[in-house]
Amino acid sequence: MYKNEEKDYTVSMENAEASVRMEGYTVTPKMREQCKRVLRGEATMEECLKRFLKSRQKDDSLWHTV
Questions:
Q1: Are 3 and 42 in contact (CB under 8 A)?
Q2: Residue 37 lies in a domain
Q3: pLDDT tens, position by position, for the chain (66 residues)?
């Protein structure tokens, strides 16, 4: 996979996180790391979303097994 040159995305990340907080959500360290992986070209947004949806399905299945 193509990797971007090392760039400082600090301001972009801070702006995105501020926007998320204004919507009433929280950015976890895991979310922050996944965003950094996308920005560095180590993963695509699609891969991260698939991983997220898969983990959500596991969490949801815990509620349905009771």
A1: yes
A2: yes
A3: 445 555 788 888 899 999 999 999 999 998 899 988 998 899 999 998 898 888 888 766 655 554
Task: Please report whether residue 54 resides in a domain.
Answer: yes
Q: Provide the domain count of the chain.
A: 1
Angle between the N-to-C axes of helices 29-39 and 45-64, in degrees from 0 to 180, rounded to the nearest 10: 150
| Distance between CA atoms of residues 60 and 50, nearest Å | 15
Structural domain includes residue 2: no
Range of the domain at 42: 10-64
38 is a domain residue = yes
Which SS3 state, helix, strand or coil, does residue 45 take?
helix
- Residue found under tokens 């695509």: 44
CA 19 centroid distance within chain:
14
